[in-house]
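Sequence in, structure out.
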Amino acid sequence: MRLLLVVNSFASSVTARNTVVVHRALSRSHEVEVVETNRRGHATRIAQDAARRGVDLVVGYGGDGTLNEVATGIAGTDTALGVLPGGSTNVFARTLGMPNDPAEAVKGLVAGLDAGNLRPIGLGRVNSRYFCFHTGIGFDAAVVRRVERHASLKRWAGHPLFIYAAVSTWAAHYDRREPHFALDFGDGTGVPDGYFTIVLNTNPYTYLGNHPLDLSHNAALDRGLVAITFRTMKVGPILRSLAGALRGGGIEPSQYVDERSDLSRFDVVAGKPFPYQVDGDYLGEMSRLRFEHCPDAVRLCFPL
């Protein structure tokens, strides 16, 4: 097979040594081209060009943001997607059962390739951007925005930085008095008072160290989207939800938490712009988002 290895050398776990190990492992049975990204959006353009050239599989080797860009570039084409963990959290790779060490993870990827273990999966899409595992709206996105302001620290202090950003955003950088947006599910129902929403294409939402943050067992690559909306910013309901997610039981719907499953399309609207992030990358503020589930959007190489 013809492979393209897209490398984000700025990602936390990407080193020159690991890149050599990964390249050698993939090259034993396949023709491999290596390209490094150098700016945001670059991986999408690289992947689009690879699909036009008929490359069989593009491997995203970096953080979840790099993987998202690669998936966006090849979605809807015959080019397949491969995953290697290179970031600090690597949510999607770990969801597939891959270890966090890229030198170990590439063994499973090669085994999957050799076995022809390629299957189509669904992706979410918000406006024109695909996402592999989640989109965050409101408070969640405000936290990611704050993390990205300290991007130079992310490589060395990933999880502590996120905790700091969450606490400081809660305390002083997010309006907790009034709802920020409404959700319209297109069937006459909706949520008029959303403070923040997580839209899942798969589960878990993220990892805190080695602990998955399990929001909903209804989120899966072969099902529609799941939207979990917090209708309050009170400490008690949020901490109870977080505790349930860490125990692995998911978040229980209540008067404060709304969950909708197997969604094919819905809108998020507001009178003024609200922040959002996609697969961990902050994308700015919008006053309207259109979500769609795209079945069989890309063929994925599942590791063995």
